[in-house]
Amino acid sequence: MSANTWTIAAARDALRKGEISAVDLTMSCLTAIDAADDLGAFVHKTPDIALDQARAADARLKAGDAPDLCGIPLGIKDLFCTKGVPSQAASNILRGFRPEYESTVTSKLFDAGAVMLGKLNMDEFAMGSSNETSCYGNAVNPWKIDDRKLTPGGSSGGSAAAVAADLCLGATGTDTGGSIRQPAAFTGIVGIKPTYGRVSRWGVVAFASSLDQAGPMTKSVRDAAIFLSAMSGHDAKDSTSADLPVPDFEAALTGDIRGKKIGIPKEYRMDGMPAEIEALWAKGADMLRDAGAEIVDISLPHTKYALPAYYVIAPAEASSNLARYDGVRYGHRAELQAGDGITEMYEKTRAEGFGPEVQRRIMVGTYVLSAGFYDAYYNRARKVRALIKRDFDLAFAAGVDAILTPATPSSAFGLGEMASADPVEMYLNDVFTVTVNLAGLPGVSVPVGLDAKGLPLGLQLIGRPWEEGDLLNHAYVLERAAGFVAKPGKWW
Amino acid sequence: MSIDIETARRVAKLARIRVEAPDLPKLAGQLNDIVSFMEQLNEVDVTGIEPMTSVTPMRLKRRADVVTDGNIQGQILKNAPDAREGFFAVPKVVE
Fold it and tell me: Which residues, at least 6 apart from A465, have a Cβ–Cβ distance to it below 8 Å?
């Protein structure tokens, strides 16, 4: 098997044993990337940086100073600022932007010896569930069942496509309402959104600051544990990052969940839920029960209100965060006519630079924060958010260790199929994932099976705050029981 | 609450996004759909509930009030669409 298909864990061991060099491993990924332009996953390739980093990693490996990620080739979502490398958040408003600084996450990865293969496609400013709002064009799911091209999900669609197609060993993603977990489920890979505050947001282009968290997207739960340990940790540059020690998440993968209590929230059984999703969910519960866990029914009564609360809070924060794109300090500035003043410059720049979905969300946010509506929408949504979090607090206080839900309401749909839908229909993709962001909890999506069409389906496990290790251990049990090994057939 | 064309125009203005007049009805319709979706929040009894300000019950860290960087004018201006003589250049603001 070509080395680009390896897991991070396998590559780590092979690198340390000297069975392959970081340069050769990197070359195998660069070759796969160059043959995969049809997937639209990598939007800025950085082979020179990758090979320099790989050579440095080989030197460290030789010297016996090799952290887990040393020499591991990764893809980086375009939302992360990477020094000297285009970082556009898939938006035309940041065309040409090359940061003068490195995000904390990528700094940590590089300090650990990781190799950056390039920047990955995504929905513009991480706003979308299908990677169709990107200024680079669509990312395409490597899974295919007929003539149609399918979405890899979003917003981390390029990351999901790249990992599923073995273009890299793992990729960074970010998750504001499900943007790691939904694309992971659509492409048959693992994705974890950590507890809010576990990973520094410094240098990650902001969408909704109280919800955004970065996390890894990988081929296995073990890889997610290795990768997450390397990304996590307190950062003085992000005042919301938690000053807590980072456990060795990989060491938590004991495979033993005997006596653990798994909650099945009845409110996630939505009207019109496809029978396949329901069956998969029951199957997942059986797997955890067979491993010695106790399955209990729980209630999270405010679940129904999570999506509307999210679609007040996230646009409100986005309208504030995206006010900085004004054509003055970086990125695009519109051509001005004689007599245009600074207001025309702002308005034309933002109309040209932002795509329709981003414009819509900024305007929704502006509306809910405007005088007279602030209490009715924004403050009410923040109160509902407190109730949603309380639902989870009560479940955990009652002894639940993890909560099992579907990851998505369907398998991957066709690109363009939602084009005529109203924006709210697209938002329903996040129905099972968005609660986790509102409550600041860790959530992981694990591939568990294929649907009747032959497309991957995932289940989500939700954990207690700061207990990513325990959560990943549950995911590890589910992964082993499900034995999901299917790979997309190569058509690209 | 429904969003009419005038409200859509006002919101676009506040957001500093130019929306041409023929596009306003469609925008108003879409904003209306989204806002009606939010109206479900009115079903929730929020009596006595404080709006969430922080999802983790932890105090924001403070740092010493000292200069931590500086003298990076070149880096700050490097990505500007128009920078002159050490400044960001914009259209005339004051007559």
Answer: A195, A440, A441, A442, B56
Whether A83 sits among the annotated catalytic residues: the reply is no
Asked if the model's pLDDT at residue A273 lies above 90, the reply is: no
For residue range B31-47, what is the model confidence (pLDDT) as tens digits? 999 999 999 999 999 99
Q: How many residues does chain A have?
A: 492
Chain B CB contacts of A386 under 8 Å are 49-52
Pick from A1, A3, A6, A60: nearest CA to A27: A3
Confidence of residue A272 (pLDDT cuts 50, 70, 90): confident
The CA radius of gyration of chain A, in Å to the nearest whole number, is 21
C-beta atoms of B34 and A100 within 8 A = no
Tell whether omega for the bond before A155 is within 30 degrees of 0, i.e. cis: yes
Residues of A in contact with B81 (CB under 8 A): 327-328, 330-333
Looking at residue A131, the DSSP 8-state letter turns out to be S
Cα distance between residue A288 and residue A400, in whole Å: 14
Q: What is the SS3 assignment for B43?
A: helix
Burial A274-305 (b: 16+ CB within 10 A, else e): bebbeebbeebbebbeebebbbeebebebbeb
Q: Which residues of B touch A384 (CB under 8 A)?
A: 41, 44, 46
* CA dihedral over A452, A457, A460, A461, signed as positive or negative: positive
- pTM for the predicted model, two decimal places: 0.97
Distance CA(B77)–CA(B72), nearest Å, equals 9
Query: Which of A96, A342, A363 shows the shortest C-beta gap to B12?
Result: A363
Whether the pLDDT of residue A485 is over 80: the answer is yes
Task: Give the H/E segment covering residue A265.
Answer: strand A261-265
**Active-site residue A241, yes or no?**
no
Question: What stretches of A112-208 show up as alpha helix (H) in DSSP?
Answer: 157-164, 181-187
Residue B1 pLDDT exceeds 60: no
- Which residue among A130, A156, A159, A179 is the active-site one? A179
pLDDT digits (tens, 9 = 90+) for B48-75: 999 999 998 878 778 899 998 899 999 9
